[in-house]
């Protein structure tokens, strides 16, 4: 099934003429049977066998997290067509809205549920890190964070928990600590949020993170490459094995075996993030960037192609130039790793030296790894050997499903009579305010720096 690619190590051609189920299992892919069959037909048309790097890249791009294959049709029916009272300027990594005659505001909101259910501290912290990058890569200065959180019953007896499910009290403590430590260390205040409880959130909390930023209208930058010949510069943290298969993990249902996916949770580093944000905003202010995008879900496999295709181009990358945390990483691991605190710039060739100098001044590691090309393909070489050559429109297209669904049938019954006036009003008030939904959340809120 696997045939070594000549001239390099740890890269294989994959035979798709056999049992496709075994291919998916052996490579740890999340592709469904109809999806791997579509991939097989694509490579038949190209008259070649794919490499394992190519299959891993498609797997990331076609995950629920990246292409919304199950929710896209519902979102198009219910959300995307809604009219706004204010003009929407851009819908990219963050939404851009009109603020006043000189400024836009940028808004990003996303969830980090699965990672937080597995590693509550790391999952929530990297959620904050990711939403900050989404706002920064539009050229906006983050000014505030929000964090609506939903957990199960904190007093649930441990013996009632299913195997492999972490207790809501443990999850809540880790999530709050992750948001506190990351947000406080990057110096962005957490000014609003919510903490709610319901049994349905047991084992699978909802950890929603949001960020608001401000940008002058002439400083807004897009998440797309500027022109053929622009140079890709990777800046920020090094690439490691943390976060591998993060988007495919986040697209699956959690079960008792999910603890084995702990490596899919990224490792946040707010101390690296803080100067990286300042660097990004300074380079944009200096007009040295033609495009900018953060490395989130899918890592390099998504950001390189998306930057290029959204500009109407393709990309060529030399993967061995990527700085690594550990030695002996396989090329596919480098390509799909979701290691945090990384940004990708596209820069005119004549501005590369100035950009690298500013990176050095901010003590942010940066290296040119590729260039923008005319053909709409992602071409990746590793030590001179081509290991990936994908049609970007096929890769980023992804499947779309119209899955059947049933709306809940609520039987509210007859109106309940009003309760009798309590005999002991003081006790009733104490009972009410002792409920987690009603009780003061001060012990959570005051952990966050909200007055930076």
TrEMBL record:
Nucleotide-binding in keyword set: yes
Enzyme Commission number(s) from the entry: 6.3.5.3
Top-level taxonomic group: Archaea
PurM-like N-terminal domain ranges (all copies): 92-215
GO biological process: one example: 'de novo' IMP biosynthetic process
Protein keywords: ATP-binding, Cytoplasm, Ligase, Magnesium, Metal-binding, Nucleotide-binding, Purine biosynthesis
Domain PurM-like C-terminal: 228-381
Domain Phosphoribosylformylglycinamidine synthase linker: 24-69
GO molecular function term, any single one: phosphoribosylformylglycinamidine synthase activity
Keyword Cytoplasm: yes
Matching CDD domains: PurL_repeat1
Enzyme class, broadest EC rank: ligase
Protein name as catalogued: Phosphoribosylformylglycinamidine synthase subunit PurL
């Amino acid at each position: 099934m696997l045939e070594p690619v000549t001239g390099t190590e740890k890269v294989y051609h994959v035979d798709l003429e056999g049992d496709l189920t075994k291919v998916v299992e052996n490579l740890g892919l999340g592709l469904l049977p109809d999806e791997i069959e579509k991939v097989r037909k694509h490579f038949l048309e190209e008259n070649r066998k794919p490499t394992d790097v190519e299959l891993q890249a498609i797997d990331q791009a076609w995950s629920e997290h990246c292409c919304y294959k199950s929710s896209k049709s519902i979102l198009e029916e219910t959300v995307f067509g809604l009219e706004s009272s204010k003009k929407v300027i851009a819908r990219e990594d963050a939404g851009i809205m009109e603020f006043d005659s000189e400024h836009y505001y940028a808004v990003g909101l996303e969830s980090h549920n699965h990672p937080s259910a597995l590693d509550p501290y790391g999952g929530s912290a990297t959620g904050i890190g990711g939403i900050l990058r989404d706002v920064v890569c539009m050229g906006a200065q983050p000014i505030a964070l929000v964090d609506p959180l939903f957990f199960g019953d904190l007093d649930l007896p441990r013996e009632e928990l299913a195997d492999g499910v972490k207790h809501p009290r443990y999850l809540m403590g880790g999530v709050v600590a992750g948001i506190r430590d990351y947000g406080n260390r990057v110096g962005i205040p957490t000014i609003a949020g919510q903490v709610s409880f319901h049994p349905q959130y047991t084992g699978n909390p909802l950890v929603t993170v949001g960020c608001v930023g401000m940008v002058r209208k002439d400083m807004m930058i897009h998440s797309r490459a500027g022109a053929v010949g622009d140079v890709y510069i990777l800046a920020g943290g090094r690439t490691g094995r943390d976060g591998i298969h993060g988007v495919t993990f986040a697209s699956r249902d959690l079960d008792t075996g999910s603890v084995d996916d702990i490596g899919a949770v990224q490792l946040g580093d707010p101390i690296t993030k803080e100067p990286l944000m300042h660097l990004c905003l300074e380079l944009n202010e200096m007009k040295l960037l033609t495009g900018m995008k953060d490395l989130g879900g899918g890592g390099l496999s998504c950001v390189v192609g998306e930057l290029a295709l959204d500009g109407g181009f393709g990309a060529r990358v030399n993967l061995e130039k990527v700085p690594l945390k550990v030695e002996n990483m396989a090329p596919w691991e480098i390509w799909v790793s979701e290691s945090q605190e990384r940004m990708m710039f596209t820069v005119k060739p004549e501005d590369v030296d100035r950009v690298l100098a500013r990176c050095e001044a901010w003590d942010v590691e940066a290296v040119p790894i590729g260039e923008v090309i005319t053909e709409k393909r992602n071409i990746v070489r590793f030590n001179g050997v081509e290991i990936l050559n994908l049609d970007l429109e096929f890769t980023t297209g992804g499947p779309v499903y119209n899955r059947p669904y049933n709306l809940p049938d609520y039987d509210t019954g007859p109106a309940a009579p009003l309760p009798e006036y309590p005999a002991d009003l003081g006790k009733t008030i104490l009972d009410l305010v002792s409920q987690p939904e009603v009780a003061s959340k001060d012990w959570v809120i005051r952990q966050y720096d909200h007055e930076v």
